[in-house]
Design brief:
This protein is mostly helical. It has one domain (2-98). The chain contains two helices and no strands. The protein has helices at residues 2-40, 52-98. The longest helix has 47 residues, at 52-98.
């Protein structure tokens, strides 16, 4: 029983650390976005600190989506390269079998 209690505490601690990291990243990104937007907006319409967290979380989700899209695009390019490689390999084998120089 002691081991199971310790294991669940470790898992909870890991989730807590992950959540803390995500929150910290969102706050940091949100602060940067608010500063950037405040440079563009007039001083009378500047964004307050209440926009830091929403902008940060939205920015994080956008970054994750961008990374997944880049991975999907890279996967397509890799499949094209592999397909071309197989075609060239088959042509090479045919040329060798036929003895064409």
């Amino acid at each position: 029983m002691g081991f199971l209690a310790h294991a669940s505490t470790g898992a909870e601690s890991a989730w807590q650390e992950l959540w803390t990291f995500i929150q910290s990243a969102a706050i940091l990104l949100g602060q940067g976005l608010v500063r950037l937007l405040n440079l563009v907006l007039p001083a009378s319409h500047s964004l307050g600190e209440e926009m830091v967290a929403p902008l940060g979380y939205l920015g994080l989700l956008t970054l994750v989506l961008l990374i997944f899209n880049l991975i999907a695009a890279a996967r397509k390019v890799i499949w094209i390269i592999v397909g071309i490689g197989w075609i060239l390999m088959v042509v090479r084998i045919i040329v060798m079998v036929l003895g064409i120089q």
